[in-house]
Amino acid sequence: MLKIDFHAHSKYSVDSKSEITDIIKSARAKGLDGIVLLEHNNIAPMNEVRAKAGNFFIIFGEEISSSDGHIGAIGIKKPIPAGLSAKESVQLVHQQGGIAFATHPFSFRVPAVRFKYKSIPFDLMETQNASHWFSTKLSRLLIGNGLGGADAHLPEEVGTSYTLVDAQPNEASVIAALRSGKFRPVSNSGFFNYLSRFFKRRQKRAARPNKF
Ligand SMILES: [Zn+2]
Ligand SMILES: [Zn+2]
């Protein structure tokens, strides 16, 4: 079983300053086997990241700001532009052979598809997100199995939620395991951890001009 955090942001996202080396250090310390870089509306530059990450297993994904809410995508090579409908975005992910999932589907703090998810052809849903407690509770209840990730914007947040995947450490194997349901989300942090992070992040964001 691989322990993979399916939702990490690095400095290649507009709202994170995390260096790849710090993310990997944190991921290794938490005992993770891999990480998914889910950058806002772009894919992290592979060669640059690989040069810093060594042999640590990384999947290069995107968190798309669709007009209906945030969508995670893995298994794609070309980024999907922001602003399209969720349906169109998911279709574009599928055209590239990738997997599309609603991130923090029931969040009320950030753009999320919420109950529209039923009419969007998602492959999966993110049902464990360490940064979105309410969404996690509701999606566990309504959807059940799904992906888990920290939605880390700081290196130390990496691994606070993750997914156990019955696969080999390569992208094709992980995607095949996801398609056949061989995975389950794991929470590594409780409600108080979530609360303290929520306030810490709010303070940091208030001090920054670029609020995302
Ligand atoms: Zn998001
Ligand atoms: Zn995110």
The CATH topology comes to TIM Barrel
Mean pLDDT value? 93
The kinds of small molecule bound in this structure are:
zinc ion
Low-confidence stretches: none
Fourth-tier CATH superfamily name: Metal-dependent hydrolases
Total separate domains = 1
Order of helices and strands: EHEHEEHEEHEEHEH
The end-to-end span amounts to 35 Å
Our estimate of the beta-strand percent is 25-35%
Strand order, largest beta sheet: 7-6-5-4-3-2-1-8-9
Helix content: 25-40%
Level-1 CATH class name: Alpha Beta
Q: Can you walk through the features of this model?
A:
The protein is of the alpha/beta class. The protein has one domain: Metal-dependent hydrolases (TIM Barrel). Helix content is 30%, strand content 25%. The protein contains six helices and nine strands; from the N terminus they run βαβαββαββαββαβα. The chain has helices at residues 20-29, 46-53, 86-95, 133-142, 171-179, 191-206; strands at 2-8, 34-40, 57-66, 69-74, 99-102, 124-129, 147-149, 161-165, 183-187. A nine-stranded mixed beta sheet has the order 7-6-5-4-3-2-1-8-9. The chain is globular and about 40 Å long. The model has no long low-confidence stretch (mean pLDDT 93). The chain binds zinc ion (2 copies). The site of one zinc ion (ZN) has 6 residues, from loops.
